[in-house]
Write a structure and sequence with these properties.
Length: 327
C-alpha cells in the first residue's frame, strides 16, 4: 500500500517507523532527490506535498514524501479532500506518501474514511504510565526482538526505572545486550541494577506521595519531574489515571464487592492479581476523598491547558491534593 498514516504521541516510535520506511523504499544514493519532509500544518503545505508525491522518482529506487504534523484527519476542506483522492488514485507505483499526526483520526471525517480506504493506518501512542502490565509486555517484546533474555524481576525493575519512555527502553536494552553479550541465562534484576539508572522519579511515585499526604516529598518529586522535562499535562494525566483506579477500587469495596476479577474489570486493570496491592494502597481512604482529588486534578488540567504557569500551578494543586487526602 503506497499511502501510510501514522498517529500517536510516541515520537520516538514514530521516528523509528519512518526510518524503516525510508530504508525500505528510498535508495540511499538518491535520497536527496527522492525523499522530502514537509511540515504540512496548512492546506497549502499539504497540496505542495501531494504535488511532489505524484512526481516520479529520479534515478534509482522509490520516492517517499513525508507530510508531518498534518491535521487532515481532523479537518479537511472539500477542495483538499478532492485533491487527496485524486492523488491517491494517480500515485506512481514507485512513489510513497506518509502522513503523521499526534491526534487520533476523527472517525466521522470524510478524510478519515478516505484514508481508511487507501492508507495503512498505524497507532504509536505512549502506554499510560499506570498500565504497568502493558509496559511490562512492551519490555518483554522489545527484549525478545534483540534476543535478550530477562527474568521476571528484571522486567519489573525496568518497568519501575523507565516507565513508558520507549526511547530510553531501547537504549537500556541495547546497553544490557552489549554488557552481557553471549550470556544464555536470563538476566536478573541483581545483574542489571548497577547498569540501569533506577532513580528516575515518575508520576506514580508522586501519586503515592499525595496519597500519604506527604507534601514535602510530593513537591520534591514534582520539581524533579519538571527538571527532567516531564510535561505538566502528562504528569496530570498520570495522576488522573491513578486516582481514577483508586476510586474504582474503593467504590467497589464500599459496595461490598469481594471478587478481585470483577473489581479488575470495573477498574480496567489487566491483571486481577494487582487488585490485592491496590486494596492495600487505598486502606484508610474513602471514595469522597478520592472524588475531591479528581475534581482538583480536572481543574489542574483545565488551568494547564489555558496556559497558566506550569510550575506554580502544579505546586498549588499538589499542596491542595495532599491537604484533601489528609482531611
Amino acid at each position: 500500500m503506497p499511502v501510510y498514516f501514522y498517529w500517536g504521541d510516541d515520537d520516538y516510535q514514530i521516528s523509528q517507523a519512518v526510518k524503516k520506511l525510508i530504508d525500505t523504499h528510498v535508495d540511499p544514493m538518491w535520497r536527496d532527490f527522492n525523499y522530502v519532509k514537509i511540515h504540512a500544518t496548512v492546506d497549502l503545505e499539504v497540496m505542495d506535498g501531494l504535488n511532489q508525491a505524484v512526481t516520479s522518482p529520479f534515478g534509482m529506487g522509490n520516492r517517499l514524501t513525508w507530510l508531518a504534523d498534518t491535521a487532515i484527519a481532523q479537518r479537511c476542506s472539500e477542495s483538499l479532500l478532492a485533491e487527496l483522492e485524486r492523488t491517491f488514485n494517480h500515485l506512481p507505483v514507485d512513489s510513497y506518501i506518509l502522513f503523521t499526526a499526534s491526534n487520533k483520526p476523527d472517525g466521522r471525517a470524510k478524510s478519515t474514511k478516505l484514508l481508511q480506504k487507501y492508507a495503512q493506518i498505524l497507532e504509536f501512542s505512549l502506554i499510560p504510565p499506570w498500565k504497568t502490565d502493558a509496559i511490562a509486555q512492551l519490555v518483554k517484546q522489545a527484549a525478545t526482538e534483540i534476543d535478550l533474555k530477562l527474568s521476571s524481576d528484571a522486567v519489573d525493575l525496568l518497568v519501575d526505572a523507565i516507565g513508558n519512555d520507549t526511547r530510553r527502553l531501547t537504549m537500556e536494552l541495547q546497553k544490557l545486550q552489549l554488557s552481557h553479550y553471549g550470556q544464555t541465562k536470563p538476566l536478573t534484576a541483581k545483574e542489571i541494577a548497577p547498569l540501569v539508572q533506577a532513580s528516575a522519579h515518575n508520576s506514580l511515585q508522586l501519586a503515592s506521595a499525595i496519597r500519604t499526604s506527604n507534601i514535602s516529598q510530593a513537591l520534591t518529586l514534582v520539581a524533579e519531574l519538571l527538571r527532567n522535562n516531564e510535561v505538566g499535562l502528562r504528569i496530570c494525566a498520570t495522576l488522573v489515571g491513578q486516582f481514577r483506579t483508586w476510586l474504582w477500587i474503593k467504590l467497589m469495596q464500599e459496595s461490598g464487592e469481594r471478587d478481585d476479577k470483577a473489581i479488575a474489570d470495573a477498574a480496567e486493570i489487566g491483571n486481577p492479581k494487582r487488585v490485592y496491592f491496590l486494596k492495600q494502597e487505598v486502606q484508610g481512604l474513602n471514595s469522597q476523598k478520592l472524588m475531591r482529588s479528581l475534581s482538583i486534578l480536572l481543574r489542574l488540567e483545565a488551568e494547564l491547558k489555558h496556559g497558566k504557569d506550569e510550575t506554580a500551578t502544579l505546586q498549588t494543586a499538589i499542596i491542595e491534593l495532599c491537604q484533601a487526602m489528609a482531611k
